[in-house]
Design goal:
The chain has 312 residues and is α+β, with helices and mostly antiparallel strands. It is 45% helix and 17% strand. The protein has helices spanning 20-64, 69-95, 97-105, 112-137, 222-232, 268-274, 287-302; strands at residues 2-9, 12-19, 175-182, 187-192, 204-209, 212-213, 238-243, 254-260, 279-280. The strands form three sheets. Strands 3-4-5-8-7 form a five-stranded mixed beta barrel. β1 (2-9) and β2 form a beta hairpin. The radius of gyration is 36 Å and the shape is flat.
Length: 312
């Protein structure tokens, strides 16, 4: 069976043909190459899915926690690296399984009694060594204090606020700062206590509460919003600020999350939305934080709190 093509020129006829065997021989290499490419692609895809599944688990969790893009990417890469390290440890244990067995139980043919004592000698070597070193470095007991006349101790002054006054739930990346002045219902000028990850210097810096859009200038209840924020952040009070997903635009203040120092665990951004000091800026927050912020704004709107009582 084959394919033939022919044409005539007067008494001369020209024809050409290709047999099915020739066609099969020509297509066979293409089929083999295609099959190899498909197998390689399938293997690489399966390997990628197997190695990268921790990033797909950690990604949504990091996003719901309100981390910015850089921290989310770092958490995903750390999860993948930890997974790969675990696989390498398992592979190393499998490769060295015979050596590990010989270490704990001795070479094949060792007596059972010798295996028993060898196993426990190797197993207890590390904890016994650690305990011995710890006892050697332990301080000597203090000598009993001699009796002395009673002395009334003076009350020590209250310690100044330190990192121990960090509100519960504030992320470790947050930075401590002091309030200089409140400019509007969503803008405040602050000064960092020390250079950190949010404010690289201790210069006075204007920051904006992330996810909040308060009225300004002649807008309805603009002065009321400024007074409301001032009541939360009086001058010289200490706060904690942290970066969010939103970023600083050209010429715009740095947008941050704000917590008041002390035992108040509530984020000030959320409290302002709940009290109607401002409206939600949905493009600046996302994930679980955006859902909670939208719920707070809806509660304030239904109750006609603050700016939601303005006409129009």
């Amino acid at each position: 069976m084959g394919i033939g093509v022919g044409f005539g020129l007067g008494p001369v006829r020209v024809s050409a043909g290709v047999s099915s065997r020739t066609m099969a021989q020509g297509c066979l290499p293409l089929l083999v190459v295609g099959l190899v490419v498909w197998v390689v692609k399938a293997v690489l895809t399966a390997l990628y899915v197997f190695l990268s599944w921790p990033s797909r688990v950690v990604g949504p969790v990091a996003e719901q926690a309100g981390l910015d893009d850089a921290y989310q990417a770092g958490a995903q890469w750390a999860a993948v690296a930890l997974w790969v390290e675990i696989l390498l440890v398992i592979l190393g244990l499998l490769v060295a399984a015979a050596d590990i067995r010989n270490l704990f139980l001795g070479s094949p043919g060792t007596k059972s009694s010798s295996r028993f004592w060898r196993f426990w000698a190797v197993t207890l070597f590390a904890p016994v060594t650690a305990a011995t070193v710890g006892m050697a470095q332990a301080p000597e007991p203090a000598a009993p204090a001699t009796a002395a006349s009673p002395v009334i101790a003076k009350a020590s002054p209250a310690p100044s606020p330190t990192g121990e006054s960090r509100p519960p739930g504030v992320p470790a990346s947050a930075q401590r700062a002091i309030v200089v002045t409140v400019s509007s219902g969503d803008t405040v000028e602050v000064k960092a206590n020390a250079p950190g990850s949010v404010l690289p210097s201790t210069k006075q810096t204007v920051v904006r509460l992330l996810g909040i859009a308060a009225p300004h200038s002649a807008e309805c209840k603009a002065e009321w919003a400024t007074r409301a924020l001032t009541s939360y952040l009086p001058k010289a009070s200490h706060i904690w600020i942290a970066r969010g997903v939103g970023s600083r635009g050209a010429g715009a203040p740095l947008a941050v999350y704000v917590w008041r120092e002390g035992s108040d665990r509530a984020m000030l951004n959320a409290r302002l939305l709940l009290n109607g000091v401002g409206r939600l800026a949905p493009g600046e927050v996302r994930g679980g934080i955006r859902s909670r912020f939208a719920e707070y704004e809806s509660t304030a709107r239904d109750a006609h709190r603050g700016i939601h009582g303005c006409a129009g």
